[in-house]
């Protein structure tokens, strides 16, 4: 099956009891047993639920994995990966990450004795030097939130495979429509399914997908044992979202390029961060590993460098909504330093480039002309 067909049919079966074309919402916590321990594959919904199974099979299918797991949030999915580690283990992570991921690593797991190194993943020599026998995990987000930095997944996988270190990729921004980390050698794909997979800003959800069955089993055990699973109603919403992922992503990409090009030529704009622009420092990596487009996320700064100008712009928007999150059909705008990335200490934010005049746009699937007209009037 090709990708677009997989978004609709991958891992799906009509409901065996009724023939329902869409999987029903199995809104049940428990399942009747014929005799103690004798059941039809489902016992208790924390362990497994048929609606969640349908979503998990769809996730595995679209990411070219063997096992998918659905979580109550993206952070619950990341947290499950961290449960594979022990005190003293070391993690090498990209130096630009979603603020909540950074917060979990530095304010929860650092206190559990896990050591984190945040590095520029494009300096592969430096990154390789950091690997030692305590290194158990490499964590990468590409493109990153909010600075759209890219990491070369295949190049990193070559190193992690040789050194026998697990390699996880947060594929939230690209989605499998644009990038398939498992095909490029990563071991774990993570998603905030709240974003493009769900696609309609109506659910908080997360996902992990792996190729290796034993790793899938370990992660499932950690999920089952600690409980961060996705409920049946929310599983249904994400599954329904995935069915139009390819259609939405195509329009997100078309609109993303148009908005990025418009901003690039605007005198009030200093830098536009979009992997599809030829002057993006990682454009070559984007062309190599992103298939058929560059997504709908665009960040930019102002020529004035003024925080006040960024805030005025955000207050002036009418079609874009000023809100956290991204990846829904509607366009959203965000001020990372004050909103999504406020949990990163100011000096660290400045060091990595999350300045006070940085704005992040999640370009939706409306008419591009309306989006550009909105940006134009907000910049006046
Ligand atoms: C790239 C990325 N990863 C992970 C997360 C966390 O996901 P959630 O909010 O679903 O817990 C987010 C949320 O914004 C994100 O943007």
TrEMBL record:
<dbReference type="Pfam" id="PF01053">
    <property type="entry name" value="Cys_Met_Meta_PP"/>
</dbReference>
<dbReference type="InterPro" id="IPR015422">
    <property type="entry name" value="PyrdxlP-dep_Trfase_small"/>
</dbReference>
<feature type="modified residue" description="N6-(pyridoxal phosphate)lysine">
    <location>
        <position position="195"/>
    </location>
</feature>
<comment type="similarity">
    <text>Belongs to the trans-sulfuration enzymes family.</text>
</comment>
<dbReference type="GO" id="GO:0004123">
    <property type="term" value="F:cystathionine gamma-lyase activity"/>
</dbReference>
<protein>
    <submittedName>
        <fullName>Cystathionine gamma-synthase</fullName>
    </submittedName>
</protein>
<dbReference type="InterPro" id="IPR015421">
    <property type="entry name" value="PyrdxlP-dep_Trfase_major"/>
</dbReference>
<dbReference type="InterPro" id="IPR000277">
    <property type="entry name" value="Cys/Met-Metab_PyrdxlP-dep_enz"/>
</dbReference>
<dbReference type="InterPro" id="IPR054542">
    <property type="entry name" value="Cys_met_metab_PP"/>
</dbReference>
<keyword id="KW-0663">Pyridoxal phosphate</keyword>
<dbReference type="GO" id="GO:0030170">
    <property type="term" value="F:pyridoxal phosphate binding"/>
</dbReference>
<dbReference type="GO" id="GO:0019346">
    <property type="term" value="P:transsulfuration"/>
</dbReference>
<dbReference type="InterPro" id="IPR015424">
    <property type="entry name" value="PyrdxlP-dep_Trfase"/>
</dbReference>
<dbReference type="GO" id="GO:0005737">
    <property type="term" value="C:cytoplasm"/>
</dbReference>
């Amino acid at each position: 099956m090709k990708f677009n067909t997989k978004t609709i049919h991958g891992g799906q079966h009509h409901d065996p009891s009724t023939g329902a074309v869409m999987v029903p919402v199995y809104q049940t916590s428990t399942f009747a047993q014929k005799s103690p321990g004798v059941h039809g594959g489902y016992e208790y919904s924390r362990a497994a639920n048929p609606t969640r199974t349908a979503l998990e099979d769809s996730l595995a299918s679209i990411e070219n994995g063997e096992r998918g797991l659905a979580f109550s949030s993206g952070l619950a999915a990341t947290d499950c990966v961290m449960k594979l580690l022990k005190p003293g283990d070391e993690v090498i992570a990209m130096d630009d990450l979603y603020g909540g991921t950074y917060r979990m690593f530095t304010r929860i797991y650092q206190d559990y004795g896990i050591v984190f190194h945040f590095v520029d993943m494009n300096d592969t020599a430096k990154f390789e030097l950091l690997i030692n026998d305590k290194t158990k995990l490499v964590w990468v987000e590409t493109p990153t939130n909010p600075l759209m930095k890219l990491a070369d997944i295949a190049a990193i996988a070559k190193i992690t495979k040789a050194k026998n270190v697990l390699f996880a990729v947060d594929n939230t921004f690209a989605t499998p429509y644009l990038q398939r980390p498992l095909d490029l050698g990563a071991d774990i794909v993570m998603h905030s399914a709240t974003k493009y997979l769900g696609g309609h800003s109506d659910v908080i959800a997360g996902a992990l997908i792996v190729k290796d069955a034993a790793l899938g089993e370990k992660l499932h055990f950690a999920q089952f044992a600690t409980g961060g699973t996705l409920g049946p109603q929310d599983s249904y919403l994400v599954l329904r979202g995935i069915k139009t992922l390819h259609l939405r992503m195509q329009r997100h990409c078309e609109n993303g390029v148009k908005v990025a090009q418009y901003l690039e030529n605007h005198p009030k704009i200093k830098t536009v961060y979009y992997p599809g622009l030829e002057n993006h420092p990682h454009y070559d990596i984007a062309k190599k590993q992103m298939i058929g487009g560059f997504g709908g996320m665009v960040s930019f700064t102002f020529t004035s460098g003024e925080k006040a100008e960024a805030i005025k712009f955000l207050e002036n928007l009418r079609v874009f909504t000023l809100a956290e999150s991204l990846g829904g059909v509607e366009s959203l705008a965000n001020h990372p330093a004050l909103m999504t990335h406020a949990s990163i200490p100011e000096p660290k934010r400045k060091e990595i480039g999350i300045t006070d005049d940085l704005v992040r746009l999640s370009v939706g699937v409306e008419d591009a002309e309306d989006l550009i007209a909105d940006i134009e009037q907000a910049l006046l």
